[in-house]
Amino acid sequence: MAVSKNVDLYASKRMGIFFPGFPSYLTGQCVSLVKWYLGEMCGVKDWQSARGHAKDFGDTLVKQHIAVKVPARQRKRGDIVVWKQDGGGYGHIGVLLSGDRVFEENVHLKGVKTAVYGGNVVSPSMTNLFNASWRRGLPTVYRVSTYVENIPKPVKKKVVTKPAPAVSTPPVVHVPEEAVPAINWAEENNKLLKQLLALLQGLVDKINGIFK
Fold this sequence. Notes:
By secondary structure, this protein is α+β, with helices and mostly antiparallel strands. The protein is 25% helix and 16% strand. It has 2 domains: 7-144, endopeptidase fold (from Nostoc punctiforme) (Alpha-Beta Complex); 183-212. The longest helix is centred in the C-terminal third of the chain and has 26 residues, at 185-210. The relative contact order is 0.16.
């Protein structure tokens, strides 16, 4: 996992230092800075392995399928830049930052402090312009596929929500109530009264027959 969000932030926290070398006599050499970049920002497992001098470093990365060569005009932040004719025949290498700047070390410019490691006089990490006039030869640009900003981001699939099937509501059937005939309560009362009077009359007749 990358230690910084991008190489600009990575470089800003590592200015003015001498990157440790593998082996140690390579401390402060330009290839050492790039090795640390590969390990800390690109997740390359064997980042400390030897890959030749600076002039050969990028081509070795291509052979190992770690990087691909890209036209210099298509360069972008995070790319590795090699000047094969620079560095006294050994070449020079650095990492491209935004603003066409290069994060590099062991660049001998006037007024830059130096140190001695492994018998070599080296200068610390710094940034300089990609097209600085003191550079020698044409640059070759390499792009590391596993650099944090080059890793393809997963595409979020758009979830299409299908509308729920319409539920048909059964029609409300109005069942007509059966017609109930209207009751003539006055007539019914008269009938009941007549029946009651008839019963009473019958009862009276029976009583009269007993006492005769």
